[in-house]
Amino acid sequence: MDKINIEKSNALAVDKMMSARPILVGVGRASDLIPNMQANLILHAGPPITWEKMSGPMKGAVIGGIIFENLAKNEEDAISMIEGGEIEFAPCHEFDSVGPMAGVTTASMQIYEIVNSTDGNKAYSNLNEGYGKVLRYGAYSEDVIKKLRWMNEEVAPVIADALASSDHGIDIRQLLSEALHMGDEGHNRNKAGSILYTAKLAPLIAKHCDNSSIASDVLQFLADNALSVLNPVMAGCKAMADAAHGIEGSTIMTVMARNGTELGVRISGLGDRWFTGPVGQPVGLYFPGFTSDDASGDIGDSTITETVGIGGFAMASAPAIVTFVSGTPQDALNATMEMYEITVSEHKHFTIPALDFRGTPVGVDIRKVVELGITPRINTGIAHKDAGVGQVGAGLVRPPMSVFEESLVAFAEHYGILD
Amino acid sequence: MDKINIEKSNALAVDKMMSARPILVGVGRASDLIPNMQANLILHAGPPITWEKMSGPMKGAVIGGIIFENLAKNEEDAISMIEGGEIEFAPCHEFDSVGPMAGVTTASMQIYEIVNSTDGNKAYSNLNEGYGKVLRYGAYSEDVIKKLRWMNEEVAPVIADALASSDHGIDIRQLLSEALHMGDEGHNRNKAGSILYTAKLAPLIAKHCDNSSIASDVLQFLADNALSVLNPVMAGCKAMADAAHGIEGSTIMTVMARNGTELGVRISGLGDRWFTGPVGQPVGLYFPGFTSDDASGDIGDSTITETVGIGGFAMASAPAIVTFVSGTPQDALNATMEMYEITVSEHKHFTIPALDFRGTPVGVDIRKVVELGITPRINTGIAHKDAGVGQVGAGLVRPPMSVFEESLVAFAEHYGILD
């Protein structure tokens, strides 16, 4: 093997991450868009996991996904199918996809399609269901499934037609740049991004949707949900992270994702191997009637935002988020400042007005994480630990240090640079 | 006369200012909505002024207003009508109205109607034309008039129908509270407010506008203009300021407005008397090809935002605005901090995340202005000094100290408290 230059590899990786330009080009069925998607395959958040080891909310979402697909009529039938080996599981990330919280994505679900116009790679994410009792938080009652069907049959086609009629699709990087100047951090606070998204779609929907009542309902659904844009943003981040993946000799983290039981990372220079460890417990604010005793472990692919330098890394842009995740505006500022310690660059497109327009910290170098003992900051929603309940709060969490230690050892072994 | 208690009067005035709840309820013709509006009456920004003393952009907008009303065919005819005494002029403020920059509002123009649901008082403002060559900056060429007619005949009815179909109208105070957490200051940066406004109207427009092409055009016009919401916001601020006006013994400023030649203020406890002085010259950033030599003096009623505690007073909420008006994010923070010195309260509804959610400085006490020698901060657009050109930049300016000195002397005389 040639002698590797880690600094140079990392500079290349982070440059590809920043130069990626994810464009939201369409909406379509997962089975049509995602290569090798199968009818009995359920994609989920985080690293690989078996049914037995799944957390409550992940199990609930899987059951809901099976019912949504009409593979089973109820919870009992769904579980017997799973236990009979009729259902396959795989991480979204292994199918160019990402999903918030449980991340459950099934074959007939309508999903967003993103193309990185710089490098041509694609990424996908399901549609955001809004707040309340929703599949991604492990709820699967009849009304949850009914809403998913409405989204699939009524909302998705309207957005699909709107995007199909647009000249250039929606530039997610540009939308995020703007949203970061409007108090978002792009993960847990996507309020500005979601109304920017709604305002961009509105003229297209008004023009191309024949049914004015449906057009109005879809616009209301998008406008009322401060997380409307989270899923296209996550797919956009996935496209950026993937652009930086597979760079020989790079120690940059290109995936960080949680399934509620384990958190897994992947490293640019180490191919598709997962490094996993136990998830942390978010610390934050709980909705009335819930406490930390109700909380599931950390879950979701939404940490793809932190992976590309926003979310917990851009909290200085979003002082108002502390009303949702706890802490003070100064804590939010400190969170961003700390992340400069473990990253290799400052983002050339994502800037923070309050820090004199400094670029967000981007490109987590696992060497720095281990050397300094500082793990990435994550903003996150908090799911109830039991299947079928839903969201109970929002807060902050960190990945286990062990995944960075293990990946660094593996890196050294792989490149033969162990002393 | 009873002995007055200025502190108590001011507390009452600022409480009424903060408790006012301006709701955007409709759009209609100025002649139908504004009491005593006349066909030959042109409302303008700032304090009273004669044709002879008007600045270039004000003259240009007046000529355009006369042509828009079909009272004259061209500039020459318009001027001869004015010189023949056929046209009347009055400040918007004297007709419950406000208009940005030249503020020209004529009888057949479609205008926004605001009701303060707390006290019942009403306020009005014209529609925002967007950027470029526009009437409010003194441009009056054929394309300017054509756009105004399109707005009057196509845009306004669509918004009117949407608002008429809405259950409660649009709560402007609530929209502003949200926008201040999204990087707006509500005067020169209304980016978040404008897309919030668009997103609120979109479902209503999609549902109630029969013509999908027009619905789409209107939504595109609203979404593309980062100042769409400025005019309803200004009318909302006018309704808040008016609620605080006329409080016996109060030294709170309830109007601050500029006509390009003079700036005028009104004081809560001094009735409808104007105190005027020469306008300042904004300092800021100029569009390519223009310099401060091209600038008109300070102009517009948009300082109604500063009057109620936003705009230049809330710059700490809007660090990104410095790319538009000059300075650094620290300057923006300092601007807000300075305004706490001359105000009597902190706003209970408008808060600044970056200052630990401290309320914006609200209620300018003319005693403090004079005593401390600190005049209010104003964010503003900059018009070209000649009629017919348009906007040349944006920046910061202050009113002349003389208007506060004069009003304070008048206050002392009026209340017989001169030593």
What does this structure look like?
Two copies of one chain form a homodimer. Chain A has 419 residues and is an alpha+beta fold. Chain A has two domains: 21-234, Alpha-Beta Complex (Enterococcus faecalis V583 fold); 246-414, v583 domain like (v583 fold). Chain A is 38% helix and 20% strand. Chain A contains 14 helices and 16 strands. The first copy, chain A, has a five-stranded mixed β-sheet. Chain A has a four-stranded antiparallel β-sheet with strand order 10-9-8-12, sandwiched between helices. In chain A, strand 9 and strand 10 (275-278) form a beta hairpin. In chain A, helix 7 packs antiparallel against helix 8 (212-224). Chain A is globular. The model of chain A has no long low-confidence stretch (mean pLDDT 96). At the A-B interface, helix 7 and helix 8 of A face helix 7 and helix 8 of B.
Throw out a few tags for this protein.
419 residues; alpha+beta; Enterococcus faecalis V583 fold; v583 fold; 2 domains; 5-stranded mixed β-sheet; 14 helices
Give a quick precis of the structure:
Helix content of chain A is 38%, strand content 20%.
- Give the oligomeric state of the chains in this entry, treating copies of one chain as homo and distinct chains as hetero: homodimer
For this structure, what is the CATH class of the largest domain in chain A?
A: Alpha Beta
Order of helices and strands of chain A: HEHEHHEEEEHEHHHHEEEEEHHHEEHEEH
Mean of all residue-level pLDDT scores of chain A: 96
- For CATH, the homologous superfamily of the largest domain in chain A is named as Enterococcus faecalis V583 domain
Helical content of chain A stands at 25-40%
According to CATH, the fold-level topology of the largest domain in chain A is Enterococcus faecalis V583 fold
CATH architecture of the largest domain in chain A: Alpha-Beta Complex
The assigned structural class of chain A equals: alpha+beta
Uncertain stretches of chain A: none
- Domains counted in the coordinates of chain A: how many? 2
DSSP, total strands of chain A: 16
In DSSP terms (H or I, runs of 4 or more residues), the helix count of chain A works out at 14
